[in-house]
Amino acid sequence: MTLLQLKYIVKIVECGSMNEASHALYVSQPALSSSVKELENELGIEIFTRSSQGIALTVDGAEFLTYARQVLDQADLLEERYKHAKPRKQLCQVSTQHYMFAVEAFVEMINSIKSDEYEFTIRETRTRDIINQVANMQSEIGILYLSDFNKDVIGKLLREKHLEFHPLFRAPLHVFISRNNPLAAKKIITMEDLKPYPFIQYEQGEEGSFYFYEEAVWPEYSPKQINVTDRATILNFIIGLNGYTVCTGIDNGDLNNEKIVTVPLDSDETMLVGWITNERAKLSKAAETYLEKLKSVVADHGYKLIN
């Protein structure tokens, strides 16, 4: 087993495919595949599963990746100490549902990092993709919510993929609406009040189901419904089409130019927002810093953290 092979494994996971990794490493794909196969034979484990859809880490592979990263970090420390080589880039990858506070914390994390080089990634994506990306070690942290409705299904999926859910805060439901909406002056809004307005929700793909929705409640029937994939679009539709969506209630005036307000929704349902991690992974310093900033941002918005 060599350090080069360990670097190959880490790069393949970071790129998500053997082909992209071979280009990034300037190694032919057959040579890269052969090196990985030799390592698997030497260790007596299967690191990747291979299919027509691509590759994915096995359970043994996820555990091996954790140790490989630790070995490479130690090797870099040796080089930095004795060869005066540059340290490895600060790395951190986060997958999240479409939360403003998650982005706000990411900005604060980057501003606090004292490093000449770094490479950070934040993905606002579908619920199932968040789970898969953390399971496959493409992201260190995933941010999503549990509710009375989805907790059994999501919880079972997390356990199957060896992921741990860490509660962050519990939020009563709110709606995002335009400041010009007639409902904006109300102290509390009912689903009946919202019937005349377009309901906007995040699209979850062909494999999506009610259990993966980002909205904890939705109208029984909505004659006007719009599915979107990104947060900027949903904010524009709320303003331009007088639509609404269900959310945690954490707002960020800098992001919506104070054209959108959050109003409490008349519902007994709540959202238990938290982060997920792979139980076999050890978080990087940058990821730990991100969690600190995440907690700070949530607390600054007036929400009580769950210890």
TrEMBL record:
**Residues covered by the HTH lysR-type domain:** 1-58
**Cross-referenced PANTHER family, in alphabetical order?**
HCA OPERON TRANSCRIPTIONAL ACTIVATOR HCAR, TRANSCRIPTIONAL DUAL REGULATOR HCAR-RELATED
Q: Which family does it belong to?
A: Belongs to the LysR transcriptional regulatory family.
Which Gene3D superfamilies does the entry mention? 3.40.190.290, Winged helix-like DNA-binding domain superfamily/Winged helix DNA-binding domain (1.10.10.10)
Name the record gives this protein: LysR family transcriptional regulator
> Known PROSITE patterns for this protein?
HTH_LYSR (PS50931)
From the broadest rank down, the organism's phylogenetic lineage runs:
Bacteria, Bacillati, Actinomycetota, Actinomycetes, Bifidobacteriales
Annotated keywords: DNA-binding, Transcription, Transcription regulation
